[in-house]
Amino acid sequence: MHIRSQRTAELTELINVLVQEFLEIHQNLNDAYTGISKQELNIISIVGRSGGVIMREIAEQVRLAVSSVTPIVDKLVEKKLARRDRSEEDRRIVTVMLTEKGQKIYQMEVESYMRLSASILEALSEKEQEQFVGYFRKVATFLQKEESPTA
Predict the structure, then answer these.
(1) Domain covering 3-122, topology
(2) Residue 46's closest CA among 119, 101, 109, 2?
(3) pTM of the shown model
């Protein structure tokens, strides 16, 4: 096997370990709140990060049609985890916001992710941490540029 493909295979395995750890956090939250689906938890995360977001933006981030996202948001509203706020200027614009209960779930997720990130950094010296975060920033910037429609 070529060195580059060996390195790619190793990186793929290492990324898989990290992804599994993050997925486990998602699953633990799902288990703690048994009535919440993975899709609902994903939308709670999106809305929580933005503070409030319109349906089209949610649909873009989960890569689904608005018509597929609407019933998921309906369930979140029904469970009192989210609410819809209609714009006073344009009644067609509806912003989805988290309720206090939804915000609590989002905060639990953020805190769990922060604990995992802190554990990852604990394995490294201060200098290695700076390099590690720098490399991740560089890769994330590169990937975001590749994903943008203007790229």
Answers:
(1) Arc Repressor Mutant, subunit A (1.10.10)
(2) 109
(3) 0.75
